[in-house]
Amino acid sequence: MPSSLLDYFPEAKGDGLRVTWARATNNKARLAAGLRNPAHLLEGDVSMSCNSRYPVPIMSPSASVPSDLTLEEWLQELLRYNNKGIQLDFQSTEVVEPACRVLARVADHVSYIL
């Protein structure tokens, strides 16, 4: 098991300044581009959907901005590639608990950094 974050990214050659991010991968197109990108980590914003009867965590910088990806769909797509770390930016405190429930459902299948 790797002992530090940098152990996950041998191409960074032990230098944290060489770890790169693909930022704002909040929709299907940006996520696909991020997965093709040589970046080590994918970053996305998590908000609580306000457009459905049962609110769910979505990939969006704001609850008022529509999204074509739920957090669960975003994670499932990452599971298919399984070679990137992730950084989630929670946009409100109300989304943290539901997002953690989603993360718990997929955590056993993840071999990248959460």
Automatic annotation (TrEMBL):
InterPro entries: Menorin_dom (IPR019356)
Gene Ontology cellular-component annotations: extracellular space
Residue ranges occupied by any Menorin-like domain in the UniProt entry: 15-108
Superkingdom classification of source: Eukaryota
Family according to the record: Belongs to the menorin family.
Protein name, as recorded: Menorin-like domain-containing protein
Organism, scientific name: Trichonephila clavipes
Lineage: Eukaryota, Metazoa, Ecdysozoa, Arthropoda, Chelicerata
